[in-house]
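Sharing in case it's useful to others searching the archive later.

Someone asked me privately for the predicted structure of Putative plasmid transfer protein TraB, so I'm posting the question and my answer publicly. Question first, with the sequence:
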Amino acid sequence: MDMDLECSVPYPIASAGASPYQAFQQALRNVDRELSTMADDLAVVERAMRRDAQAVEGTAEAIARAGLDDRFVRMTQEVAILLGGTARGLGLFQQAAQEAADDTAATARLHTSLYGRLDEIRSGRKEKTPKPGFFTD
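And my answer, the predicted structure tokens:
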């Protein structure tokens, strides 16, 4: 199956005076921040969904005590089960978002350790430096 996947996030564009290194670091910080926010938001929704599942289960018990038709009790219990399953799925999604944020932060640290000093040297020079690949055959 051939899928044409397109990234909706534009590549970072270096602003005036910013090096490609700095632009990439900024992009990593932006991604990390967005993923962390998403993870936090998903955790809030997960907790609310779990509370709703418990409340619906209590409603099913109340319907059963009131002597309503078993069909309504079963339907309400099914809703509680589905809400609980959705909450578990949200929890997994939240964990994945947090792991992605952690990996993004680790990538930024690795990028800094590999290229940070080079950027400092290149940014501090008044003279232009060769483009990458200049010295290769």
